[in-house]
Amino acid sequence: MTVESTKTDQPQRTRRTFLHEGRKVFFVFFLMASFGVLCGENVFVLLAQQRPDRTKAPELGPAPQLTLPPIQKRALSNGLPVWIVETHEVPLVQITLVVLAGSGDDPAGTFGVGSLTAAMLDEGAGSRSALEIADVVEFLGATLTTTSSFDSSAVRLNVPVARLSEALPVMADVALRPAFPQAELDRLRQERLTALLQARDDPASIAAMAFARIVFGNTHRYGTGAAGTAATLKAFTTADLRAFHSALYQPTNATLVVAGDTTAAAILPQLEQQFGGWKATAPVKRAEVPAAAQLTRGQITIVDKPDAEQSQIRIGWVGVPRATPDYFPLVVLNTTLGGSFTSRLNQNLRETHGYSYGASSAFDMRLSSGPFVAAAGVQTDKTADALREFFNELNGIAASRSAPRSWRSRRTTSRSASRRSSRPPPICRVRSRSSSSTRCPRPTSSAMSPACRRSRRTRCRRPPRATCSRRGSRSWSWATGARSSRASARSAWAPCAS
Fold it and tell me: Which of residues 250, 275, 300 is at a domain's end?
């Protein structure tokens, strides 16, 4: 029987047959549970897998197998390296020209020239203006972007395979023959100056700039942002950009990376046609960024920002370069500390205490030693408490985790069970002596605040910092009604101190 042939009265007859009074049919649904169906006389039984055992952490399974496609390394006639990775699932091709020239190559006194040069590449190139480049890229269904970091710059083209031959000449013009028009330079200069002004009103931006300056100093390149300063931006000319481009954008200082639905035999002739005539004009000389001196003592810097919604915290020091032999151990360490949502910093400051929407840490590894930073925007009146938890985690990551790890596992397990099995007590809104509205829990037991029992409009007589807690459940502040996930060692509700 098909759906189309079903008569309109058949569902009603089925309902009367199976769901009349005296017949009981139970349907049990388990999310993500495998089940079997045993058919008897109008009886259906759904068998679900057993409830998971949450008293201990699950055992690790076998490591997943990662199979990467091979990298085919070729070179054009001018020596430009080409790396090709074939992936034929989607009819797209991604071509990236990576040039080893970034903000770390900015000459002294011209901080920001490398970043501005990369931004100006697609603002007019070859015979096309900036608008004409944007129009042709959009018509081809492609994306063409330019980026820059402290270590390198890149031109990226993502295009359907059918349009590759039309898009490659545009990419070649942008990378090799930028025009650097004065009008576009003036526009980008003004945009960046405006962004610097706006950053002064953003506490997170202020914290980032102050942190870099304190850790690396005024003269080190990493002590100033990649975009430079207002003074250097105002001084740049098109001649400065052309000089930076001609000195460092050379085929001997670049690599083409191709990934997508193509083959080496198909893509190499097209790349040779567009990039094979790119000739080196002079040897590339990159100035090495000196290693910054490590901080020798702790220091606290406070930047007063009135009316800021949060306190922005940045804690860190000089980190390590990308070439460190400890790269992979540090990646694992940072993932545990603050590199993921389930990291210790985020679980502590966000999930456990509710001080922040998110806390993180990162090693910014560059050619020279970049910064290590732990960061969060926290509730202003919890700044001191948040700093204490930051240092607890930073100090604890180096300690033995055998005993604390077991405690942490038990705490997480009990907290998860508490979320499923209980609800926080209802609250009543009360008035304090200062007429400010606060919250007081209203449990139904004798632990209820006398003020809450007598009236909802009287102040809570509990001391401001007293809390009542039970092991394995959330605790509530009598004064604020704020919820905390900190577990107590008591086995029953304990009355607050009067």
Answer: 275
